[in-house]
Predict the structure.
Amino acid sequence: MTKPKPQTCEVKIGSEWRAVSLTEAATEHVMAVKRCPACHGQVMILGAYGSPTVHRTMSHRRAHSGCPLKSDTYSGTPSLHPQALA
């Protein structure tokens, strides 16, 4: 069985977007703007502390039915977020 790829988000560094792990986004790029790699909507990084690690998740700031990474609200048709970050 293959190990699942760690979840990532994109952070704006200077004038470009760079894909980073959620842990890196939450610890090394705390103040950077973050977006979803699929729909480009703005996201925030959440962390649930459990012994001995922190489980990080990504949450969209505004719900969007066209993001395939949000299985609970995904409509089945991928699309950019209405307020996509460029």
Summary: The CA atoms of residues 16 and 86 lie 9 Å apart. The mean pLDDT is 88.
